[in-house]
Design a protein that fits this description.
Blueprint: H1 2-12, H2 15-29, H3 34-47, H4 57-60, H5 65-78, H6 84-89, H7 97-107, H8 112-120, H9 126-139, H10 142-150, H11 157-169
Length: 175
């Protein structure tokens, strides 16, 4: 009920609603109880206002993985580019990587430059490259196919196999 009230005030009542809800929201966000911080992340996701990303940043870096997971779900809903580096970093954390992948897929084609840059970085591990390809496979589109096609000569076997699978899923046909 508290989450619904705060979301309703922030989303539908304008500045007065935000001002009225901020004290309750701040208490949730700053709580020592992870369940309260999870509610704060859920509120930000339910509001779905892209510019309300700043309070989500500390929740994306929270020590509690359940809080991080919920914050990543919210990041996917907000689609703010300033949240993507944290989502990308979470791809290496097994307990939250599915939420991180979902957040990046939700970002859609706008996240492609960051994914491409990370993929092409020489220090990127094959396991991360495989996850990035899985994200690209879900985003799809001509740019994704062109990117995957350019990287068909990947040396690492698991990356190459995932790349071929992704191209197939994107309905790629070699000329």
């Amino acid at each position: 009920l508290k989450v619904a009230a705060i979301v309703g005030l922030m989303r539908h009542v304008g500045m007065e609603g935000v001002a009225a809800a901020m004290d309750q929201f701040a208490k949730l966000r700053d709580s020592t109880e992870p369940n309260q911080r999870i509610l704060a992340a859920r509120i930000l996701g339910d509001i779905e206002i892209q510019n309300f990303y700043r309070p989500l940043l500390p929740l994306l870096r929270d020590e509690n993985l359940d809080v991080r997971y919920e914050a990543l779900i919210a990041a996917g809903k907000l689609k703010n580019p300033r949240l993507w580096p944290d989502a990308l970093a979470a791809l290496n954390m097994p307990n939250v990587q599915s939420a991180a992948m979902s957040a990046l897929v939700e970002a859609g084609p706008a996240v492609l430059p960051l994914i491409e840059q990370t993929f092409e970085d020489q220090t990127t591990q094959p396991e991360l490259r495989v996850r990035l390809i899985r994200i690209l496979q879900q985003i799809r589109g001509e740019r994704v196919v062109a990117f995957l096609e350019r990287h068909m000569e990947m040396a690492h076997h698991s990356v190459y196999l995932r790349l071929l699978y992704a191209l197939s899923a994107c309905h790629y046909h070699a000329s």
